[in-house]
TrEMBL record:
<dbReference type="GO" id="GO:0042601">
    <property type="term" value="C:endospore-forming forespore"/>
</dbReference>
<dbReference type="Pfam" id="PF08141">
    <property type="entry name" value="SspH"/>
</dbReference>
<dbReference type="InterPro" id="IPR012610">
    <property type="entry name" value="SASP_SspH"/>
</dbReference>
<comment type="similarity">
    <text>Belongs to the SspH family.</text>
</comment>
<protein>
    <submittedName>
        <fullName>Small, acid-soluble spore protein, H family</fullName>
    </submittedName>
</protein>
<dbReference type="GO" id="GO:0030436">
    <property type="term" value="P:asexual sporulation"/>
</dbReference>
<keyword id="KW-0749">Sporulation</keyword>
<dbReference type="GO" id="GO:0030435">
    <property type="term" value="P:sporulation resulting in formation of a cellular spore"/>
</dbReference>
Amino acid sequence: MEFSRAQEIYNSPKEYEVTYNDVSIWIDQLHNDGKTATVHLRHSLEERSEVNVAELKEEYLIQS
């Protein structure tokens, strides 16, 4: 994923399905380096990881 798209998703009031290594995640923070983000598994708030934004995939917009 491009960093600019990650910013759009992060700042959007809509909920998007984003995955990292085929696992659903939330973006917690985008880093100033323009390359990395802190994420956590969608169903686990405990474990956070710093990942390369290029490895994130937008799957779809979640309809609510």
